[in-house]
Design a protein that fits this description.
The protein is of the alpha/beta class and 460 residues long. The chain is 37% helix and 21% strand. The termini are far apart. The protein binds zinc ion (ZN).
Length: 460
């Protein structure tokens, strides 16, 4: 049994059911789980280890619900900078097809290092192509070393160009291989227990890159094993046209036809949805990974974030792949979510009521999406808030920094309104991943060097 006491925090924001916030806050952790939160004066004075966080805001670790770590290898590729989704994909598929297992490993470490430093304690990743002998295991090993909680989505693509899909045949796999590897990784790695550091998700890539049969078979398999399902959905108008032409359905109706609506499913993006689609998500309990930077970067559109929240849909945040963001900055993504929702509200308010000012989403509401929301989307009851019994996954930011000066009246909101930097502490299950601003689990100069070499090899 070991205990860790966090004390004297400028503010401890719990994001618990009642959204308690404690100025001069403290938290007692026992064996990686939270025992108590409250004011410093009300908690024990000592523990096996004590961390004085005077001047810091402490909050639950952020949860990233959609990413493609391997895309850190293709950031800001000139030929893909100014394209919409389908053309962006067509430019990048051949480059990604040259990846090796080492590239998957090093890109996982790079993305996770960036996530850790930007406040993320749990990340989901969607790896959907496995060229040159790459396996999900390469990601899992990279993630294990960095130390973030990981939901590894075993992605897939089976519908190549010759069968009417978008990706070239060279990067798709047979459905037999895909399903047998899904079984292998679930049986080898999936841990559903409280405090789990690793869960497996089944994740056919998108309606335009897998067959109807693979969608159905993946759903059956996931339900047999009790793992979650994930895919891209309703990201662009091109996708909607594709679904209507190939399947005779709009994207959400197509998902319903393949038994993909349920509380064990979450969709990335879901930008182009009708009100009846939102009601279906609500009825079936589906979650959404909102990816504002990517949606703006590719010109995909505005997801109806506020409508989702009003209907009680579980919404988490995703930085999306590092080729369409081109960053893995979680706190930055929270800020983007706030700004994007406000811009949309402004545009709607202007068109609906002239001068009347619309209600604007708050910093606390977007932080809630990135913490409690992400936990709900991933189906986790043990993370997303700082309260008794939950995992000790938290971050702390020193507010005595240039970008936060003058924000003393509301330091929690300042984290979102001001320019987001790196966090100073990031603990997962009570263990430090970032400590006093330093990543404890990898050497960043070595990582940058290896990653740059791998990226350069890919484009040659
Ligand atoms: Zn994506």
């Amino acid at each position: 049994m070991t205990t860790l006491l966090i004390k004297n925090a400028l503010l401890l924001a719990t994001m618990d059911e009642e959204r308690h916030e404690y100025s001069d806050g403290a938290m007692l952790i026992r064996d990686g789980f939270i025992e108590r939160t409250g004011f410093t004066k009300d908690l024990p004075e000592t523990a096996d280890e004590v961390l004085d966080l005077s001047g810091h805001v402490v909050l639950p670790g952020l949860i990233n619900t959609h990413h493609h770590f391997y895309q850190t290898l293709t950031r800001a590729v000139p030929g893909a900078q100014n394209s919409n989704l389908f053309n962006w994909l067509k430019t990048l598929y051949p480059i990604w097809g040259r990846m090796t297992p080492e590239d998957v490993f090093i890109s996982t470490q790079t993305a996770m290092a960036e996530l850790a430093l930007s406040g993320c304690t749990t990340a989901s990743d969607h790896l959907y192509l496995f060229p040159n002998g790459s396996r999900l295991d390469d990601e899992i090993e990279g993630a294990r070393q960095i130390g973030l909680r990981f939901h590894a989505s075993r992605g897939s693509m089976s519908l190549g160009e010759s069968k009417g899909g978008l990706p070239p045949d060279s990067v798709v796999d047979s459905e037999e291989n895909i399903l047998s590897d899904c079984i292998r990784v679930i049986e080898k790695y999936h841990d559903p227990k409280a405090g789990s550091m690793l869960q497996i998700v089944l994740a056919p890539c998108s309606p335009f890159s897998v067959s109807t049969e693979l969608m159905r078979d993946s759903a059956k398999l996931a339900r047999h094993y009790g793992v979650h399902l994930h895919t891209h959905l309703a990201e662009t108008e091109d996708e909607e046209e594709f679904c209507l032409r190939k399947f005779g359905y709009k994207p959400v109706d197509y998902m319903e036809s393949v038994d993909w609506l349920g509380p064990d499913v979450w969709f990335a993006h879901s930008v182009h949805v009708r009100h009846e689609d939102i009601r279906k998500f609500q009825h079936f309990g589906c979650g959404v990974a909102h990816c504002p930077s990517s949606n703006m970067r590719l010109g995909s559109g505005f997801a109806p974030l506020v409508e989702y929240l009003q209907e009680g849909i579980h919404v988490g945040l995703g930085v999306d792949g590092s080729a369409s963001n081109d960053s893995s900055h979680m706190l930055g993504e929270v800020r983007q979510a706030l700004l994007m929702a406000r811009l949309r509200a402004g545009l709607q308010g202007a068109s609906l009521s002239g001068e009347k000012s619309p209600k604007l989403i708050t910093a606390r509401e977007v932080l809630e999406i990135a913490t409690r929301g992400g936990a709900a989307v991933l189906g986790r009851k043990d993370i997303g808030a700082l309260e008794s019994g939950k995992c000790a996954d938290f971050i702390a930011i020193d507010m005595n920094k240039l970008q936060y000066t003058g924000s003393f009246q509301d330091p929690l909101s300042a984290l979102i309104f001001c320019n987001p930097g790196w966090v100073d502490y990031n603990f997962v299950q009570g263990k430090p991943v970032v400590f006093r601003g330093e990543l404890r689990t990898a050497n960043i100069p070595d990582l940058v060097n290896q990653h740059n070499k791998a990226a350069a090899r890919l484009v040659q």
